[in-house]
Amino acid sequence: MKKFVLEQVSITQNAFLGCQDAKSLITNMSHFISLIWQPHETFFCIEADQFKCLAQHTLGQPIIHLALSPTKLKAKISNDQLWQLASQQEKLSAYLPITYLNIENSDNTCDNWYCLKLQMVDKPGIFIFLQNPNNEQMDLWNSEPLLASLAMQFFHLLQKFILNQKYKTQIVKNDKLEALYLQEINLQQDFSSKVLKLHKMTQELLAAPTLDALYKISVTTLRDVLGFDRTCLILADTVQHIMYPTYGTNDNGDTTDESQQTYDMETLDPRILHTILHTKKLLEVIENTPLYTAEKVVGIGWNAVVILRDGDNLIGWISIDNLLKNQVILDYEKELLILYSSMLSSAIVQKHEESNLHILHNSVVQLSHQKTEFTICRVAIEIIREQLKLDRAAIFLSYDNGQTMRGTFGTDINGVIVEETHFNDPLAKNSLLELAIDSPHQLVMEKSVPLYHNRKIVGHGWNAAMLLRNQDQVIGFLVLDNLINKRQLSSHNKHMLTLFASNLAEIISRKRAEESVYKLNNELEHLVTERTVQLENANKALEASNQKLEQLSLIDSLTAIANRRHFDESYQREWATACRHSLNLSIIMLDVDYFKTYNDFYGHQQGDKCLREVAQVIKKHFRRAGELVARYGGEEFVVLLGHSSEQDVHQRIKAVIDDLFLQNIKHLKSPLQRVTLSAGVATSQITENIQQNELLKRADKALYQAKSEGRNRLVTTCMV
Question: Which residue among the candidates 635, 636, 646, 709 is catalytic per the annotation?
């Protein structure tokens, strides 16, 4: 619908330019009104002691032109009621005075009447009365400033035709009257032309890719299109009383970037400052005043400020002067600037909204990519600080429908993001949080209250909160304040935060659902796996039992190392392999020295413990693949090594003997007062000419020799 209305505005403006008299102009305007609002009756009246009707149009009937005849309307409304309607409080549009009155008729029916008041200083007012228009469509007057532009174009063209008619009925007696007439006509034509240019300017403003581009266009078009001298767009921070220039004009009429400058608002002319801060005016013009460049006086002339507002919030203003051309500012130019104020304010607010939507979209994408609730909260605080430009924020989550709150991330008194998981308390009795709970889907605020950090008061300002919830479940709270910069929240900030918090709650809720589904899937998968494993285990139970029995049959129960059977089987395999490839094979026989006396003195239990300790000492030195340590019998152990040199075997067995010696296992019946080992080593390259038991005999003989030579030593023999 908005696109259709804007198209009809453009069509009607072009139709106005082709009109030759007041009747065709009124006919076109009446057609536009009927097309958009469908009023039952439309009256075009001119202001006088009594209203005089220019035309009457009943919906579906031809328009009746009354040619300034006194009001004799075929309608249910009297002349007094028309005056009463026109005098109502003007509040239905920010761009054009529109009044409303509900009138009860004699037949007990009621009609909704509206009055559009088109007025200008020293000009008779034009009043357009509408009976029972589409009420919803009447809201367009408040949202579309171009409708006000069209209405004012109609007003000035109608004044032109009335003036033409007036002058045509008179005899122009002197050149002065003729000159005034021509001047007035030229001004009206110039105004009409510039209204059309304003329409195009508005389209350019709305099409600006960024806010910065919009600021620049707003300055250049005032000069290049509407013909003003020097212009500068200034944004304002009323809390800190600071002005932020964006783009301006130098003394040569060129656009300059002034965004690096800041000024105190107290440097403004007191009259302008009063208008900006303490009135709702959109334009203030000061005549015969000093004109400045970089805070230095460069001339004298008029200075105007076109004030930009978003409702009650000050956006900033455009400063204009006549330093370069020294031309006076005309009344119709003031009307243009007031209209431009509304258009530019709307464009800035809309561009802010577009920027906010871009931020919201990116934030949803960014938050959705996070893997946990915890990281979602951290990124959310980063977005609030860096993109929404707010002071301090914190997110608290609940897992029991709001009974207890757990901290996630927040900001300290310097705005630095900090982890706050240490906070895990029952929900406090807090008026702000209670208000948030009672006002779901709304950002609630408390103004001029103490602000806290780590439960200590650190300042005063506003505090805001919004409940994060999914359907009837409380997810947590988003809490904010303005401790650092003391900025107030505009309506757009509040709307933005409300949308952001709603998205945040939805994303956290979705993440919880994903984690629940993931957990359920894991449980199901675990259950299926468990049942599968149980089935496989059942099928393999006999095989496992057999394997276990086989393993137990190869393990010495006392020392938990390989037993004699295991050694014999391994020895046969290794001998066969070494024989096929003519490889070295080593047998090491080890015996605990004086073990019988140890057993007799300490007892069999202690003797068993001693054998286990000796077995572990030997085993830890032979862990390579293919190496085997076994209990050969009693206190005797054997080591089977393949692919080892005589020197390597000698060094490793000596390390075993030395290691056991250092263990210092007490043996008071031994000459060395500790448990020791003797070892016999036999190494040979295995061939078919060597008997399989020959290597064992040689190792056993070497062991006997070691014991004969005093024990705690090794003897090596090498078979050639």
Answer: 635
